[in-house]
Amino acid sequence: xxxxSLSCQGEIxxxxxxxxxxxxxxARLIELHHPPTFDSFxxxxxxxxxxxxxxxxxxxxxxxxxxxxxxxxxxxxxxLPETVLALTPQQLRQIGVSGRKASYLHDxxxxxxxxxxxxxxxxxxxxxxxxxxxxxxxxxxxxxxxxFMIFSLxxxxxxxxxxxxxxxxxxxxYGLEELPRPSQMDQLxxxxxxxxxxxxxxxxxxxxxxxxxxxxxxVAAAGMSLQQQQQEQHMQQQQQQSSQFIDQIGxxxxxxxxxxxx
Length: 262
Description:
Blueprint: H1 11-22, H2 24-30, H3 44-54, H4 59-73, H5 81-86, H6 89-94, H7 99-113, H8 119-124, H9 127-134, H10 142-151, H11 164-174, H12 182-188, H13 196-210, H14 216-221, H15 226-248
Helix pairs in contact: 1-2, 3-7, 9-10, 11-13
C-alpha cells in the first residue's frame, strides 16, 4: 500500500503535529523554520533522468547540461525512454554528459522499454519494492532513491540513513558524541514514523542553519582527523545535492496519490 502523499492537502500539517507530539527535541526545531512544501510535479522517468544528469555536479554545471539535454530531446515532454535510447554516447558527450552517465541513462531507458519499470508502476509501488527496483538501475544508489522518493514522489516516511546531513542533524539534535552510523539511524528515528521524510527535511534546515566549516583549515582547527575532514566535506556536498533536489527534482503527476492505498 502506498501512503498518502505529502503533496495532499493538509498532510504536512498532520505530519508536523505528529512530529511535535512524538519528539520534544524536534518540536523545538520545527518552531524555528517555516513548514516544507512538496508541490512540484514531473514524471518519474524525467525526474530520474534529471537526477542522473545532476550527479556529482555543481548546481550551475548541472543546470547547463540539463538545458542542453532538453534541447537535444526537443523539450521536457519529449524526455521518454525511446528518445533517450535514440541518443548515442557521442551525442551525449557533446553536451557534457560523461560516457558513464550516458550508460546510466540508457540502462534506465532500457528498463522502461523492457517493462521492468514504468511511471505507473513506480507511482504505485510500496517503498520497499520501489527501493529494490530502482537500485537495480545502474548509477542509481540508495541516496538517489531516497531523494527521489522524498522530493519527487513526496513519500512521507523515508529516512535517508546514508545522508551525512541527516546523520549530522541527528547528532546535533540529540547531542551525541559521535556521528550515528547508518545502522543506528532507524532506531534513533523510530519515533518519527510515519513522517520521517518531513523530519529529515527539518534536519537539513537545522544543519544548514548551524553552518559548516568553510575550509580544511577550519576543520583542522576543530581537531578533526584527515578522515573526518573528508567526511565533513562529503557531507557538505551531499547537503548541496539535497538542496538541489528540493529545487530541481520535481514531483510526479499523479491525481490518485491523494487517496489512501492508491
